[in-house]
């Protein structure tokens, strides 16, 4: 284990060194740095989209549960229309199974667990990323402001140097340029350090988010299926509703009447 940790730390340092060499060059325009910033902004937009879509998904599930609860109430009303005790018992069992899915206040219902899991495992971590990214974007704006000041200071120094002004103005312009350079490099390093963390772990973040979402969705639908399964009889034997329409029932009655007539005719002949 210590060896594996050492290898990971060594790989981390190597990746950081490569990353710094790629984005920390001291030039006016750094294409590698700008590309890294574009990747960061794309990642930030993706996380915000997922965050909003998770909210919409929870709202959709809540609507589904409300409609499912209303449907179960309507179906349960059939218990008052049936004299068969088995049908009344089945309606109660079905209502109980549906409540195991849709109950808003029951801590172990499918929807309550889904909301809890999504909040803790998805929304809260993404919210932390979004807050981090807001701060990083502020540092990026500060870094860009410092770069503009550095460019202006370098331009002033080059003008003084080109005109051959007095040593006093030359030294002042050079000092202003060095101060602007130091301030820029300080803000630039802060941004690079934060961008490095996101760049190094980006694939892990994407994988964790995708797998967590899939698992939580599986948990919800699996829990809902098990809740309904507990309301089903040991053997599922029933006639489909398509066979319970008036036309099908009329055919069934006609067939039974024909069979009854044939039996009566055979009985009469035998007697």
Fraction of residues in β-strands: under 5%
Q: Enumerate the spans where pLDDT stays under 50 for 5 or more consecutive residues.
A: none
Provide a count of the helices: 6
Terminal Cα separation, in Å? 95 Å
- Shape designation: rod-shaped
By DSSP, the count of extended strands is 0
**Largest beta-sheet details:** none
Quick recap of the structure?
By secondary structure, the protein is mainly α.
Provide a descriptive summary of the structure in words.
- It is a single chain.
- The chain is mainly α and 271 residues long.
- Helix content is 84%, strand content 0%.
- α4 packs antiparallel against α5.
- The chain is rod-shaped and about 140 Å long.
- It starts with a helix and ends with a helix.
- The model has no long low-confidence stretch (mean pLDDT 83).
